[in-house]
Protein: DUF4931 domain-containing protein
Organism: Neobacillus mesonae
Amino acid sequence: MEMKHLHFNTSIGAKKPESIRNKEAACPFCARDELTNIIEVDEPIILLKNKYPVLENAYQTVLIESDDCHGDLSTYPKEHLHKLFRFGIEHWLDLEASGIYRSVIFFKNHGPLSGGSIAHPHMQIVGLDDIDYKETVDPEMFEGIVIAEEENGPRFTLSTKPRVGFYEFNIEMTDACYQERFAEYLQIAVHYILNHFPFKANSYNVFFYHINGNIYAKVVPRFVTTPLYIGYGLPQVPNNLEWMAEELSRIYFNVPQTV
């Protein structure tokens, strides 16, 4: 398969504000009256063009999730949770359907190990001119131990063939219509990572995929990446996946653990 690389503009990157580690830095997303290039507003949600488009040959937008700088996906009230994901998924799929871009990616960074720079809760929707992200997607990376599922509805699993390695949570639904349990399962995965994970975790990513009529979200707790993956592309699978799946079922779905 032909390798593809995104090109990063370092001169723009050097100007980006950073408020995840630098707690004294002013948050650009809190200064809502100063925001420019706004695409759509659904209070308190704002979609706008990225002021620092570091990726070349790409159309970059930012989805500000809330007017609360300390808000978090893991604790959003259900009404706001569904409003946010209806809004985000609609704009992502609309940009994809426009046919302007070869592919459109939708993702979220949270925490100091996530690769993000702004602490204020937000996601990004990026149209790629020359790269089709789906060429790097293997369907088996969404396979896993079932934690919860709805009949003819969303499914929540723990990857048995993770993309990068160790623990990755998958949520899937059909693209026919938005289903509320999709966002609720995603919220549970994030809440578990931040509050019940067996290793202290303060960072995660959420990646969305639109493949063969289905929408997938992959929720990945972030730690220092294993050198076996960095150097050789070898994902590792831990030996306690069954335990973790049962633990999630016990905590969030009141399913007794097996002996």
Q: What stands out?
A: Residues 137-203+212-253 form one domain. The mean pLDDT is 96.
